[in-house]
Amino acid sequence: MKSPSSLPVETAPVLDAQEFTEPGAAVDRLMALYTQATDYLIARFTEVLDTGRATARFRAFYPEIRLTTSVYDLPDTRLSFGYVPEPGTYSTTVTRPDLFRNYLEQQIGLVLENHRVPISVGQSTTPIPLHFAVAGHEALTRAPHADLGFSLRDAFDVPDLAITNDDIVNGEGVRNPDGSIPLAPFTAQRVDYSLARLAHYTATDAEHFQNHVLFTNYQFYVDEFEAFARAALADPDSGYTAFVGPGNAVITDPEAPLPALPRMPQMPTYHLKRERGAGITLVNIGVGPSNAKTATDHIAVLRPHAWLMVGHCAGLRNSQRLGDFVLAHAYLREDNVLNEDLPVWVPIPALAEIQIALQEAVAEVSALDGFELKRIMRTGTVATIDNRNWELRDQSGPVQRLSQSRAVALDMESATIAANGFRFRVPYGTLLCVSDKPLHGELKLPGMASDFYRVQVARHLRIGVRAMERLREMPLERIHSRKLRSFEETAFL
After folding, report:
1. CB-based contacts of 462, cutoff 8 Å, min separation 6
2. Is 193 in the same domain as 213?
3. Which of 191, 239, 291, 409 has its CA 20 to 30 A from that of 162?
4. Tens of pLDDT along 257-307?
5. Residues 274 and 168 grouped into a single domain
6. Together in a domain, 168 and 300
């Protein structure tokens, strides 16, 4: 084989850009361009595997959406998305239009409605990395690449971390290489990177994720979620159609066994599916802010409608009892994992729509309301830390800060999930359950813990699910608060 520097570059056939005024037709074109590009790379890669050599450096490009407007339009300012702020050319690369069809049709439709100019769909100048083009083709991803005798990067494009980042959502004021303004919060390569990571961490494919995501930090919630899912599948009026577990195991029969993987992933994930992604996904992120950041970093590219944390916490007030609920209305961030992306001086506001849905769900499940609801639920600041054994340190520092912040509960995930929701413009909320009170000498002992989990987890899980069902009934433009949008925002949500 020739040296890499002497190989000619061979590209997929060039297809002209086309203009559209109807979102469905635009997405059809995106799918055609993406399929053409990935089919080309798969065919060339198959040839290289068969022959053991590469005759060229093979390249294909992501499709893109482009919008140009020359006037200061006056959109419906009640919306937090769906329009560009000023005249200019805006563009975004697109991957997996089959997976994102509903999202793309919705976002393109709003832009067309608000600006009344056509959008252009064509090929971008951003190459598709081979690793992402062959994703889902198990025979190719498992092929013995090392036996080729040369590096794949000599013949194909590979992921470029220099352009796989969060600069757009972090508000870095980036421009695309051609000078156009980003139209969407994530580039195609950033999305592809997260889709690959999601499959790794959760052992389920992105297509199973639903628009309403619950995070938890204990396996007990998974057991209850499976029980709830089986009951929902047994109810023909529930609207739920399937239950999916790690390994993409799918059941539609409520009595069917759910096959278990011989080795579970780092963040086991389960999906109670409904038409058009309107079901509920539960992710067991385990304990700690690092896992919470990892999960939300990648799930964010799916543009869920909301995510909530439902897990256990330490109660910090003597008046609390084990089993009480805490509805977070503020966060003390001592998790430290997002300091570079979102400084700690940035406030994380409570979102009214989420707070109301959670409070009403607690009232419904507990059959308490009004002043009586205060018997089992407290609203206040939740502190999130990165030291599981914070109690073993000198108490003068941590306890003083917790008291000054007026915190009512402490955990290791909630503020991270809320802060990343704020950063990624995904509506967020937290409802925790007090499982111990370390400042007041009430630690979980094995027998106490078993009783507590058996009684409380089922009720807590039902509250989280019911809150999500309430949010599902809201129009998307009502859930997505303008609080989450900065001075200059992408048109796409």
Report:
1. 224, 228, 365
2. no
3. 291
4. 999 899 999 999 999 999 999 999 999 999 999 999 999 999 999 999 999
5. no
6. no
